Amino acid sequence: MGRYPTAERLMAEAIEEAGRSDFGPGDFREGLEVLLGSLERDGDLCPEADAQVIGDFRRRLVNRLEVEAWYAGHPEVEDVAVRGPVDINGLPRTGTTALADMLSLDPRFRCLRGWEQARPCPPPVRENEAADPRRVKFARDWENQSAEHRAMHIFELDATMEDTDLLGMAFHGQQMVLPVPGYRDWWREADLTETYRYHRRVVKLLGSRRPPDLWLFKAPHHKFHLEALAAAYPDIRFVMTHRDPAKVVPSYASLVSSITPPADGERDLARLGREICDHLRIGMEHAIGARSRIGEDRFLDVHHRRLIADPMGTVRDVYDWLGMELTPPVEESIRDWQEANRVGAHGTHRYTAERFGLSTGQIRSDYDAYIRRFDVALEG
């Protein structure tokens, strides 16, 4: 008997909770088993964290059951249009969130909000969104975050966010905030074709009662499986952000270490740093290979240094590339956002490579091919 439940037990508990048994299409079972196995072998969590972690797995299984029940009762969802999407990806900590938050201010984009992902059913309705209990809870949870975490990450309640829960419902998500390196070894090389097909299924449901239908996605982890994403969304276009990996890697390691549930004892930060450095490098290698096969014309490269120096000019570059007009009201909203979120407005995120057993020179050496491929500016 292991510390963590089996996939069979979790699925049975979800069926009992939901009162339904159809989990829908896709290959979620293998991912769930690999994830639980990795947590058993690799995990260092304190026992008090187990209930929350396993509860999240069970919630995602219940979500699958509810999605299928909604489709059964609302077959018209099958015909819901999904335009685009525009997908912002790249290495994390490179400006993906800032760029996504600014574009999310344009009402022509349909954003994939975190609060609706957490419980997709019933799909949201614009007129009732402000008081939607899911949205209210999401806002309250953010208000309870520490000042340290607020300094690390910009948060906008109704901006597009990482599709952590959608991929989590397929148990083919990155799971970076859990100590499961064995699972991530498997996930990096897994075929996510069915996963993103299921992803589109949930996106259609979320958009079924809440226009518009031009979607905006943002997820650095998309870079690992761009071709599978493009197969599910044939009209997708990609905006890829870039920054000196000597800044990216320790910043991301710091963020991950702050939001991973507490360890049972002292967590090995050098091990975490090494894994993150390798993980992100492999992801970018995947992305470079995929770009050549998908077509470079479907990618726009945005550099962090320019985004910081000229955020509005960068936004205009994106709109020009998309063939969309940056309207005066949207431009004004973006300028207001930029003023409210200028560097340091929410505190300062302090981190060092050495805390995670890394060095600037070693990181840049590991990422030399990436730096040269995209002419990435090195930061002092």
UniProtKB/TrEMBL annotation:
InterPro entries: P-loop_NTPase (IPR027417), Stf3_sulfotransferase (IPR052736). Its EC number is 2.8.2.-. SUPFAM superfamilies: P-loop containing nucleoside triphosphate hydrolases (SSF52540). It comes from the Bacteria. GO terms for molecular function: transferase activity. The keyword Zinc-finger does not apply. Keywords: Transferase. The keyword Transferase applies. Gene3D superfamilies: P-loop containing nucleotide triphosphate hydrolases. PANTHER family: OMEGA-HYDROXY-BETA-DIHYDROMENAQUINONE-9 SULFOTRANSFERASE STF3 (PTHR36451:SF1), PAPS-DEPENDENT SULFOTRANSFERASE STF3 (PTHR36451). This is Sulfotransferase family protein. It comes from Actinomadura rugatobispora. The lineage of its organism: Bacteria, Bacillati, Actinomycetota, Actinomycetes, Streptosporangiales.
